[in-house]
Amino acid sequence: MKKGRILETIKERGAKQMAIDEAMLIARINNLVPNTLRFFTWEPSAITVGFFQDLEQELDLQRAKDLKVDVIRRYSGGGAVFHEDELTYSLVVSEKDISLNVLDSYKYLCQGVIKGLESLGIEAEFKPINDILVKGKKISGNAQTRKEGVILQHGTILLSVNLEKMFSLLKISDEKLKGKLIASAKEGVTSIKNELQDKDLNIKDLKKVFRQGFAESLGLEFEEAALSKEEKKIANELYRDKYLSKDWSYNQKYNNRFYAKN
Amino acid sequence: MQKIDYKVEGGKFLRLQVDMKENIIKDIKIRGDFFVYPETAIFKIEEFLKEKNIESFESLLNQYIKEKDIKIIGFSVADLKKVLQRDN
Hints:
By secondary structure, chain A is of the alpha/beta class.
C-alpha cells in the first residue's frame, strides 16, 4: 500500500492553520514530503472567507472584533465558514495519484469524511459541488485549491453548531431576513453531536475514525510524522506576511515567492 | 459601482460590482463563493471584460477561458451574461 503522512493535531490561530496548509502544499510540490493528511482545531474561533469573496461585503468585521473571532481569507474558493466546535481536516495529494477533474475529485476526496461518519453510525452522502449531508442536512463543507500538480483540499466536520453566533458575524443588513436565514439554516445544518446526542466526544477518537476513513478511501497507509523543518519555515513566513496581512485579507494580494508562476 | 447579487441555479452565489456605460463594461469585480482554477485567473477575466459589450462578450470570454485553460465551478459565462443583461 502507498504510504502517506499524518501530522499531529494542532490547536492554533486560523491564520497559522491556513499558513501550515499552504506550506504542506508547497512542500508537496517540491517533492519534499509525501501525500499528507492532518486534522486541526481553531483557537480562538474564526471565520474564514473564500478566495473570491469580498471581506467587507460578507462579514461584520466590527462584530468579529467584539467577539474576539479571528477573520482570515483562505487560499481556497468557496463561501464564508464559521469555525468553532469542529474538527477540520486538510489533505495534500499529488494530481498524479488522483487523476480526476475538480468536480469528481471533490466527490472522491470527501469519501474519507463520509466513511468516518459511517463508522460513527452516521449515514452521510456527498452533495455536489462540495458538501456532505446527513439526512439532507449539511455536516461538512469542503474546498480545494490546486497548484503546480498538487491538490490541497480542506474541510470542516461540524461537532456542534452555533447558528446565532455564526449569523451575527455575517453581514446581512435586513434583520427580518437574518431571522429567516437562521430558521432555514436550523433545518439545513447538523453536527456530529446533534446526530449522536453524545456530548463527550473526544478529538483523539474522532481523529482516529476519520484517519481510517481517509486511509481506506485513498488506499494510503498513514505514518505519523511532524511538520518538516522546511514546512515550519514556510508556514511561519506565510503566517506573518500573508495570512495576517491586510493586503491579503482585503485585496487577495500576496506575491508568493514559493511558486514557479503566480 | 453597481452591486448585483445573483444565486446561480444549481451553482454558487455571484456578487458583482460593475460599472457599465450603455452596454459597455467599464469596470467589473466578480466576487462570490464559487471556485476558479487557477484562482488569480479571476483578475485576468475581469481585465479581459473591460470595454466589452455585454451583448457580445460571451463567445469571446469562453474562447479566452479555453485558451488559458481556466476552470470555473459554480457559474458559467452564460450566467454572467444573463446577470449583466438583466440588471442593465
